[in-house]
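Reviewers of the previous submission asked for a worked example of the structure-prediction workflow described in the proposal, so we include one complete record here. The input consisted solely of the amino acid sequence. No template or homolog information was supplied to the procedure at any stage.
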Amino acid sequence: MSAAITDGAVKALISQLGYSSLYPPQEMAVKSGILEYERILVTTPTASGKTLIAMMAILKAVEKGMKAVYLTPLRALASEKYDDLKILEKLDLGGSKIRVTVATTDYDSSGNELAGADVIVLTNEKMDTLFRHNAEWLGNVGIFVSDEVHLIGDRERGPTLEMMLTKIRRNYPQSQVVALSATVANSDEIADWLGCKLVESDWRPTKLVEGVYEYGAVKMSDGSKFKVESSGVSSAVDLAIDSFNGGGQALIFAETRKRAASLAAKAVDGVYKRLDKAARELAAGASADILARGDDSELTKTLAQLVAKGVAFHHKGIIKILTATPTLAAGVNLPARRVVIASILRYDSDYGGSVPISVLEYKQLCGRAGRPKYDAFGEAVIVSERGVNAEELYDHYVLGSPEPLRSQLSNDSAIRFHLLSAIATMPGMKKPEIHDLFAGTLFARQYRSATV
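From that input alone, the workflow returned the following structure tokens.
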């Protein structure tokens, strides 16, 4: 146990989670004042213990009689964090119990039904609606945790996240802010904008090795090379089965839902014949559970059939190979020994065609590689497609650095939407007040206030 931890409830939490000692990034956060209500931006790799950093800060706020809000970009991630934070309900704070709740839908609700909880898990969009409804209990929030904060650079989700953080800084200056992300290239700039101390580390519990596959062979960043047996079906599936043969699970990222389902179907034969009797029984049980809990759609039936064979698409279960769209990379805890990026292309509606993903998105996908407590290392492999040079992929993605986060409020439709939202939230808002609000955005910082 770290000598820096003196709070009994925090010690109890760490013990409850099974930690014998804190990870290095967690030690850094404690030394930076996470337990003394300091605002902190934590940028450390996936599985390096960011959730516990947030939980310790949340617990300290609740001990002081304040509420805590945990913000996520996805409903699936909100549900997962709710399950994680439920452990706080087992702690005894001098006879009182902590109440944890989650809200991700019903955007017309005023949020008053959440007032009885101590810890509230929300999606960013739900938080945005609570601001518009002026939920009274927000004044008693002692800490806001913003997970996956790098999504501020996402064209679709970024503007809402940026405005939400701007409003938190402006309207709740007394509240602690803890921002979490695995990859922020311009972390100093983002920390300064948020008014946060920066906790930055490249430590991860499992070693990450990255590489590129081309014509049956893989070149890895540690200098190693290996051959992969070809089935003639799919290079991405071959890489996944190769990992399974070595005792690991695999996660294939596909560019669309349709291709994710297609790759899962192609992996079935290769996986099922390698399952032992016990694994087949577990897979059959998971399949039956999906049919019992799910609806009567063809998607559910297809998923159940694939899970029975040890394969799934975007589903958490007893599986050896999972295929998914990149949405799963946004923090959802489904790691695998090997991550396979089936394509580096994504359809862009504005461009009207497929474009390469950013290095930032690639590094986020890589973060899923390596299962703490199960693997000593994780692997991330890009499949080189026709017409794309493998060496160029290696140089750009494996050796490349993530792009700096840039505000997406520069998009005309985004700034119009949030301008109208601000006016609707505060009727009678004067022009100087509007300017004051938007002058506090990352957009104003990066493009100068005069541009706003």
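The chain has 16 helices and 19 strands. We consider this example representative of the routine output the project will generate in years two and three.
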